[in-house]
Automatic annotation (TrEMBL):
Keyword Cell membrane tagged: yes
UniProt entry tagged with the keyword Electron transport: no
Domain of life: Bacteria
Origin species: Pseudoalteromonas fenneropenaei
Protein name, as recorded: Flagellar protein
């Protein structure tokens, strides 16, 4: 009789424990999936915004005396820049560690027009800046 009671107690308690442990991970798994999907969406949004800003290149650093006319990436951290200073265009080589003067252009390159989306964004930023002043 004792052996039967022990067998029932062992198998019975095992089923209770098994059912209790399967419901808890199911809830935790749903939360985990939701969290991972949210994280994935945020990462995708950040990457998309970075690519959009890189593609639009609104030239926010331009001023009256100094303009970046063209920029061409050569590698991850290297690029060629055509800058205009005092109505003369100069070719610069830019790396992560240095900036080298390469050449003064004899015939100036035409300035790239900003894409329409970048122009609209620039106008929106100017309006917001003027409202804050």
């Amino acid at each position: 009789m004792k052996a039967a009671f022990l067998l029932v107690a062992m198998f019975g308690s095992g089923k209770v424990v098994a059912s209790a442990t399967t419901s808890a991970p199911a809830v935790a798994m749903g939360d985990m999936v939701s969290m991972l999907l949210s994280l994935f969406a945020v990462v995708i949004l950040i990457v998309a915004m970075a690519m959009l800003m890189k593609r639009l290149n609104p030239n926010l650093g331009n001023s009256e005396n100094f303009k970046v006319i063209r920029s061409m990436p050569l590698g991850n951290r290297e690029r060629l820049l055509v800058v205009e200073i005092d109505n003369k265009q100069h070719l610069l080589g830019v790396t992560a560690n240095s900036i080298n003067y390469l050449y003064q252009l004899e015939q100036p390159l035409p300035e790239h027009a900003m894409p329409p989306l970048a122009q609209n964004f620039s106008k929106l930023l100017q309006r917001a800046h003027n409202k804050n002043e």
